[in-house]
Amino acid sequence: MDTDKVFKALADATRRRLLDQLHKDNGQSLTQLCEHMNMTRQSVTQHLQLLEDANLVVIVWQGREKLHYLNPVPLQEIYARWIEKFERDRLRALRNLKRSLEADDDKKA
Amino acid sequence: MTTKKPDYVYVTYIATTPHKVWQAITDPELARQYWGDPNSGCARVNVSDWRPGSKWEHQRVDAARTVDIVGKVLESTPPRRLVISWARPDEAADDSKHSRVAFDIEPYSDGLVRLTVTHDDLERDPKMFAGVSGGWPKVLSNLKTLLETGRALPRTPVATEHR
Lengths: 109, 163
Fold this sequence. Notes:
The structure holds 2 protein chains of 2 kinds. Chain A is mostly helical.
């Protein structure tokens, strides 16, 4: 999946609100989601389509009802690629510290 | 397909084959490379013969092979669909405490495979509900990276320099 689509989908307050709504209560129908949004049903549908194209929202059909699920997997990929990477040095330093402290304990024992 | 609403649905698209996705879920040699946190020594694997009705165990790759989750194989159609029940070891005997995980592996366009993980019947166990929601995105993101690049974490200058 295209990372650009994920960043574009997130670059909009309405779409982030829709994700927050699904985080609060996963698996909502369009009608349920519209209750929290101060805009037309058609606009909500368009925003949901962009979220679906970015794989941030996944559809499950329950009979004739279309339910929307928050899919955080693309967010995790962004986290691993753009956030965790910059933390890795610090995490390695901690790990090395732990190892050297544990090695000291082994010598004493 | 149950008529009940799933609790969680996770989807990832992976440039690989359905067979390799199936292997990555069911083969401990592959799972230990991405499931859990291989770097901190907390890798986890799934152990079973993967026949319908068989037991399966989610084990830590440690000396004791600590079992964190157990269940039964409910449906097994390699390499397309695997459904397992999911419970804490001390609640294995109580069916009402079991939740259910389905892996659906479908070929998608452009050489991609669509992997859907659906977790149902978690509502009786709020603690498991919370734990599961944090775990799956990381497992699936690591799985995708492993199958597409041969390593579980994204390759960065920092990571390669110390290899």
